[in-house]
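Chapter review: from sequence to fold.
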Amino acid sequence: MFIFALSLIIVFFALVTLFNSSNQNSTWRTKALSAQIALNQGQLETLVKSEKLTVFWAGPKVNSLYTLDASSSDRTVIRYVEVNHSKTSVLGSSRQIATYKSENAYSDGIIAASSAGNIGFRNPDGAIVFYAANRLSNVYLAIPKIKYQIEIYDPIRGQALSLAALTGQITRIGK
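The token string follows.
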């Protein structure tokens, strides 16, 4: 009888521990998907793959963590959070790359690239790059045969354009 009671107590505590662990993991996942938690590269890649998200980015950046906002079903946003490890503080404004679902992303990109006030061209990868002539910090990218438009924001003048214009700089996580 004593062994049976002890077994029940052990099973009870195991279930409580499992429930708490599962609940904490669910809370972490919810916060991570709503940009409330900064992630390292491995955590970001694992989360994107496990949630089967389509997310484009410019790859890892030294001294950076990342937040992921996937709270909308048709948009994801990665924010690069630069960290000064010696002071463990966040430094200034940072790069962001948004991935927007768009059934006609490429043809819409061609139209936007040729619209008045915009500048557009095809990069070496065949993607359409376009941006407002007076706003170089935000550049858009439409890749052939991909139903997503990508917006690149970088506070450093010319960085967003460089990322969009050069071969292989913007890639899909998990591919």
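Two observations follow directly from the output. The chain has two domains: 1-33, 35-172. The longest strand covers residues 75-84.
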